[in-house]
Recover the amino acids of this structure.
């Protein structure tokens, strides 16, 4: 079973069908990571905002760029429709490949998607901890020549202003659906 398939099973166990309320699910928690500028960041830095979080890796050929592109487009669309709500949205990309996704690599990568996208990396132990707390699974997949790719969960998590879980979106969520849900859930 791939990490992506296993993630779907984990989410199904953690999040009962039709459940979107934070009272029914316990995802999230503390983390100590480093952003793309080299600044240490914790979950407390995002309290008061609505973090929209995607876990992936910078060498991802398709899923990560598509998801991050959708998140950036959603920020732009929300900024046009409801600027006060867009100001409360925080876009986060957390690597599942900290060995290769250094601060410098993250800086270059997140800059391609949106100026408000925060890229987070850290030690293997911190990445393992934050992914476990947020229900994300990942595993290296060996490739020819000794390189590897990363198989990983493909969902986007929306957290609330007190760090509470609100909902998740599949990585292939349509832009209009994502924007409508963000507009509905984010308090002005």
């Amino acid at each position: 079973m791939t990490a992506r398939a296993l993630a779907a099973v984990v989410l199904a166990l953690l999040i009962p069908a039709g459940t979107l309320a934070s009272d029914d699910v316990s995802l999230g928690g503390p983390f100590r990571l480093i952003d793309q500028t080299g600044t240490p960041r914790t979950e407390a830095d995002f309290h008061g905002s609505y973090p929209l979080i995607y876990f992936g890796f910078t060498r991802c050929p398709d899923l990560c760029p598509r998801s991050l592109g959708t998140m950036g487009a959603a920020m732009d669309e929300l900024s046009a429709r409801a600027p006060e709500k867009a100001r409360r949205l925080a876009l986060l990309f957390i690597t599942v490949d900290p060995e290769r996704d250094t601060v410098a690599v993250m800086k270059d990568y997140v800059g391609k998607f949106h100026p408000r996208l925060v890229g987070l990396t850290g030690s293997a132990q911190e990445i393992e901890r934050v992914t476990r707390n947020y229900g994300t699974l990942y595993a290296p997949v060996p490739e020819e020549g000794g390189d590897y790719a990363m198989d990983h969960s493909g969902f986007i998590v929306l957290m609330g202003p007190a760090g509470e879980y609100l909902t998740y979106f599949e990585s292939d969520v349509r832009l209009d659906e994502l924007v409508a849900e963000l507009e509905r859930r984010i308090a002005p």
